[in-house]
Amino acid sequence: MTAPELRPCPFCGETDVITIKEPLEKDGLAMVLCLNCYAEAPLNYENGGWNTRADLSQAAIATLERENYELREAVTALQGRLEIQQHNNSVLRTGNIQLQRDVRNATDPFGQD
Ligand SMILES: [Zn+2]
Question: How many Å lie between the centroid of ligand 1 and the Cα of residue 33?
C-alpha cells in the first residue's frame, strides 16, 4: 500500500508534516507529526487517521465560518436596533425636558422661560 498524501496539520494548518514510527514499546505505529505545533496522530491507512482529522477540521472550519457570518449579521442587526433605540431615547429626553419646562411654567407664575 502506498502512503497517502498527507494533508496540512488540522490544528495549525502547517504543511510541513512528517511520518514517524513510534518505538516498538509504543506499538511501533506510524504517526504523523506536525513540525510546527507538534500535534501527532496515527497514520491509520484504513480509517484515514491524520487525513481524516484534516477533513473533519475542514468541516469544522466551514461550520465555524458559517456561524461567524451569521453572528456578524446578528450583531449588525442589533447595532441598527440600538441606534434606533438611542435615537428614540434622545427624542423622548428632549420631549421630557420640554414637558418639565411647560409644567414648571404652568405651575410657577414667576418661572416663565
Ligand atoms: Zn500543527
Answer: 8
Spell out the domain ranges in the chain.
Answer: 1-53, 55-113
What predicted TM-score, i.e. pTM, was given to this entire model? 0.46
pLDDT in tens, 67-105: 999 999 999 999 999 999 999 999 999 999 999 999 999
18 alpha carbon to ligand 1 midpoint, in Å?
11
All residues at 6 or more sequence positions from 60 whose CB lies less than 8 Å from its CB, including other chains: none
Condensed to tens digits (0 to 9), the pLDDT of residues 51-69 reads 887 777 778 888 899 999 9
